[in-house]
Design a protein that fits this description.
The protein is mainly alpha-helical and 107 residues long. It is built from 4 helices and 3 strands, in the order βαββααα. The chain folds into 2 domains: 47 residues; 58 residues, no CATH class. Helices cover 47% and strands 8% of the residues. The chain has a 3-stranded mixed sheet. The protein is globular and about 40 Å long. The two termini are 27 Å apart.
């Protein structure tokens, strides 16, 4: 997961750590002007087993997360990607995205 600002609140950081432990989700604080200098808060790691109790809890609490999980499960059943996934950007598209989102002004 990549974010511009990651709250330093202890409870929030504990939840990020739980997500990292449960799913191997890495957390990166993005520096939009110097992407190479972005900070890895928690490194990603592979998980052999999914913590389905946590998936269910998060799905109950967040309809958008539930939609992503349903889309992933559907893609797995038909063995092809479909649904609403983020598309990767090339360098020019990335700069345009940053400007559109008012994250930074490009030159």
């Amino acid at each position: 997961m990549v974010a511009l600002n990651i709250d330093s609140d202890g409870d929030f950081r504990d939840e990020l750590s739980r997500l990292n432990n449960a799913f191997g989700i890495g957390i990166i604080q993005l520096d939009p002007e110097h992407v190479d200098e972005s900070e890895i808060i928690l490194p990603a790691h592979s998980k052999e087993v999914i913590d389905w109790a946590t998936v269910d809890r998060l799905s109950d609490e967040n309809p958008e997360f539930k939609e992503v999980i349903e889309s992933i499960l559907s893609s797995m059943k038909i063995a092809q990607t479909h649904g609403k996934y983020d598309q990767p950007y090339n360098e020019d598209e990335y700069k345009q995205y940053l400007e559109r989102q008012r994250i930074m002004k490009t030159k």
